[in-house]
Amino acid sequence: MELRKRLGIYLREDRATVVCLVPQGGQTRLLGCFSLDIDGEEPPDQQTLADRIAQACAERGLKFTESAVALDCALFMQHSVHSEFSDYKKIAATVRFDAEETLATDISDMAVAFRIASKGQTGAQLDVFTAQRSTLSDILLSLQSNGIDPIAVSPDAWCLSRYLAQWGRSEEADRVYALLSDARGYLIGTPNGDEVSFTRAFPVGPSQDRKALLTRETLVTAALGGSGQSAPKLCVLDALNGLRASDLGPRVPFDVEDCDLAAMGRIDPAELTDCRNVVDFAIAYGAALPESEKDKGTNFRVDHMPYLGKTLRLRKAVRFLSISLTVLLLALGVYAQMHLMRVNRYRAVQREKLEPDYLAVMPGEEKLPATMRAAVQKLGSAVRAVRARQSGIGADRETIEAKLTLVLQALNACAAQTDLNIDTITLSGANIVISADTSRRPNTLRVFDAMEKAGLARKQESYVEKGGRDTFTITVEPKKATGR
User: Fold this and answer.
1) What is the DSSP string of 417-438?
2) Sign of the alpha-carbon dihedral angle for 216, 218, 221, 223
3) Which InterPro entries would you find in this protein's record (predicted)?
């Protein structure tokens, strides 16, 4: 995946070695590497070096999204400092005070990084690295101006130890790596998944006896107990003069063997033709490896110009999303408002058309109701009333007029023959209650028959003889119209 490609840069004052890696199957694959020098520049300029790095990456098609820098040992100092704490967070909070007390100098102008060399009951022994803030600022600003924003800036020896931890033989706990580039020397204790026993870096002059220098530094390191063993196995590599294990063996009281950094990382030597030497390559390779939890303290950027790349990308993404949502909501609001305006215009037109007709057919109304629904309801009621009056009683038998008409028709049809006297006629809802009396019971039954013939259905009836008359009460309702 292109988004996971990482660039490792080993920076010296006049040289840069660049390695580009990509994760593959739980390991890393080399995409490209090169070295470039600016020794012709007087004085060496970090901006020029950064410009050439970016140009060389573009020419080789090396694309990446993350980068890290391995800082050359000439650009920082390493000190041994004791901390009263063994917890990482507490050490990180107090390391500047401990370093200032140990060095007896003001370190306000210095960036501080550290690694825990060992822990004990009295605290922890630290390797503290200090670099001038101005130097780090020049490096970071020069790289950032070319679109390279390193996640981490770490000491070169620590990056080399990460390469050895990735590819070295960690099963041998007493192994020490003695590695020489053209102008730098490194002594690295056995790396493993948890820690590195020790790291040392020292300059190598062009006229120095490299064999004697390496012998002296190895013996000093062993005498200080840095290896953790009395007789460690020494792995030797001289990238410039080809110093062999057989050349060094008689001079040191250790088992000595040759070290091949390229073969260790399964790198074809043909891929390193653009690099000055394999040690510089291994340092840049270690810088390009993904950081782990134990790498936090060795990052100078934690103390100076903290890396904000991921945070800035997240902020830009959130800002873009917020702007997009705002524009979308505004567009939806404008669309809804335009739709509402069109509907309101249509309503206004229809209201203007309806108002003259409405007032003409609705006597007593001086103006159109506030809502069209109310107007439609009133018109519906008026239409139903008109239809009832125009279609006759059979068409709508629910009105008071229709009910009274039916009752009067029935009573008029039989009143003379039955000697009918009406007491009360009560209309309530759909029912009509009639209280009356006739001269005798058969006449009462004729009244009931006349009501049915007139279209009234009997619901309830009662009658009783009283005072020589047959008094009755009957409840009727208009029959439902059928066949319509």
Assistant:
1) HHT-EEEEEEEETTEEEEEEEE
2) negative
3) ATPase_NBD, GspL_cyto_dom
The distance in angstroms from the start CA to the end CA of the chain is 79
Residue 217, Cβ neighbours under 10 Å: how many?
18
Distance, CA of 112 to CA of 89 (rounded, Å)? 15
Span of 29-38, 139-148, 191-200 with lowest mean pLDDT: 191-200
Q: Is 321 exposed, middle or buried (0-12, 13-18, 19+ CB in 10 A)?
A: exposed
Look at the block and give the residue holding tokens 């690694």.
115
Burial of 219 (0-12, 13-18, 19+ CB in 10 A): middle
Is the per-residue pLDDT at 484 higher than 50?
Answer: no
Give Rg (Cα) of the chain: 52
Query: What's the Cα-to-Cα distance from 458 to each of 400, 434, 461, rounded to whole Å?
Result: 18, 11, 7
CA-CA distance, 141 to 22, in Å (whole number)?
A: 26
CB 211 within 8 Å of CB 183? no
- The two tokens of residue 53 are 């790095």
Q: Are 220 and 213 in contact (CB under 8 A)?
A: no
Task: Evaluate whether 283 touches 70 at the Cβ level (below 8 Å).
Answer: yes
Q: How far apart are CA 287 and CA 11, in angstroms?
A: 11
Selection from 134, 142, 166 nearest residue 67 by Cα: 142
pLDDT digits (tens, 9 = 90+) for 240-269: 877 887 877 777 778 888 888 998 888 998
Of the candidates 180, 200, 170, the residue with the CA atom closest to the CA atom of residue 188: 200
Residues in the chain: 484
DSSP code per residue over 272-335: GTTSS-HHHHHHHHHHHSPP-GGGSTT-GGGTSS---HHHHHHHHHHHHHHHHHHHHHHHHHHH
- Other C-beta atoms within 10 Å of 397: how many? 21
| Confidence at 224, pLDDT banded by 50, 70, 90 | low
CA 438-444-445 angle, to 5 degrees, is: 165
- Dihedral sign (CA 187, 192, 193, 194): negative
Q: What is the pLDDT of residues 178-209, one digit of tens each?
A: 899 989 999 988 765 556 678 889 889 888 88
Cα separations in angstroms, 451 against 53, 306, 434, 476, 482: 113, 103, 11, 8, 18
Go through 33-63 and write b for each residue having 16 or more CB atoms within 10 A of its CB, e for each that does not: bbbbebeeeeeeebeebbbebeebbeeeebe
